[in-house]
């Protein structure tokens, strides 16, 4: 199990009044008042999510740059856009012109400054419109044409708002996952190597090295693992003990994912 | 702050002593010229000692770097160092906002595209130094930030040389960030030299 901390810059764009600020308001860590957006054109907040994949836990930190929707301020906006790695484009479903400008204005501007980056299209204020509204259909086909996920949300009811971050998060880490898969396909290791790897991995995830070593020592003793000449069945037994400890120190899901991965490694190991 | 108070006290005290002795030496009508000479000698020696003492205090007083932000030009925080025991958890937001403010000032006031490199408050300064791929901001609470400006410049250039290229295409994975601590901690100690 690998644990990664990833930091990404995400910009939030769309016409004035579509609900950008409202969308993030209750879902991110805000340190500065919204009045900064009107004053200096930008406000930065933060959204942390955890993405669990087989063999991999990613703590993704998205720095969200909420940028004033006035189209005229393009000079100051381009400075804020620089270095953006993800894009949330927001339109207001009750005002079709804000939907059209997503592709005709905002996307173009971003492409010109940072090129193509992982993007999600959001149709906000779904509480104000019928579910099969014209604007929704336009957005749907826009998403398909551009190959970009689309979500209908409401900042008012909270509908689908969390999905914005989880969907974009998946896109942001996609390249990491392919890299991970590429490095995973290597020759099977000896049992001693695998045990060594698991010990290190457990310690790294546990955090407190001293305590982690104590737990390992205790579990290995209980399961009858001979560190110099480990046997598969005893190590497998010890893994259950480690998983119990991780349920407390990490989470149940993480502990389970770790356990399955470690069991697989032991079974595949040579010797 | 503490250092400044000590320096001020020292100055006030020495001025008082000089003044008293000076007055005594010249105003009091001494019967014996040797006594007057003796007093003048004492004043001279004391003045010398005090000047040397003041210089030593001045030179040895450390310039305190309270906090250092290592950032990318686009406002992403790479590392944060602080002397505070309980650091705040929002340095990354602060780094972003500091960058946003710089962008705002640059676009609003400086047609030539210059950069904001200092923000002064009553009790502390924020010095900011830019290179191609790196921005370092230092929060300093002593009254003599001048000395640190050169150090900050040198540290930024050295950082750029060692890590600039890597940071320019850093994916955001903390594991892939090189070992920047050594250089940054040296700067934090206020003794950064080539
Ligand atoms: N009914 C409804 N109203 C919403 C929703 N989201 C935002 N609003 C309202 O729309 C108005 C504008 O929202 P903001 O979040 O300020 O919009 P913005 O996109 O940040 O606007 P600028 O900062 O000017 O670019 C506010 O009055 C919100 O209360 C929603 O989902 N449903
Ligand atoms: Mg707003």
Q: Could you explain the architecture of this structure?
A:
The complex is a heterodimer of chains A (271) and B (194). Chain A has 271 residues and is α/β, with parallel strands linked by helices. Chain A folds into 2 domains: 2-180, P-loop containing nucleotide triphosphate hydrolases (Rossmann fold, 3-Layer(aba) Sandwich); 191-268. Chain A has 11 helices and 6 strands. Chain A has helices spanning 20-25, 35-40, 74-81, 96-114, 134-146, 161-172, 174-184, 191-206, 209-223, 232-249, 252-268, and strands at residues 2-13, 42-53, 56-67, 86-92, 119-124, 150-152. In chain A, strands 2-3-1-4-5-6 form a 6-stranded mixed β-sheet, with helices on both faces. In chain A, a hairpin with a 2-residue loop joins strand 2 and strand 3 (56-67). In chain A, helix 8 packs across helix 9. Chain A is elongated. The two termini of chain A are 22 Å apart. By secondary structure, chain B is an alpha+beta fold. Chain B folds into 2 domains: 2-60; 65-188, Beta-Lactamase, CATH 3.30.450. Chain B has helices at 2-27, 33-60, 91-109, 146-168, 181-188, and strands at residues 65-71, 77-82, 118-120, 125-130, 135-140. In chain B, strands 2-1-5-4-3 form a 5-stranded antiparallel β-sheet, with helices on both faces. Chain B starts with a helix and ends in a 6-residue tail after the last helix. At the A-B interface, strand 1, strand 2, strand 3 and helix 3 of A face helix 3 of B. Guanosine-5'-triphosphate is lined by residues 14, 16-22, 37, 68-69, 124-125, 127-128, 154-156 of chain A.
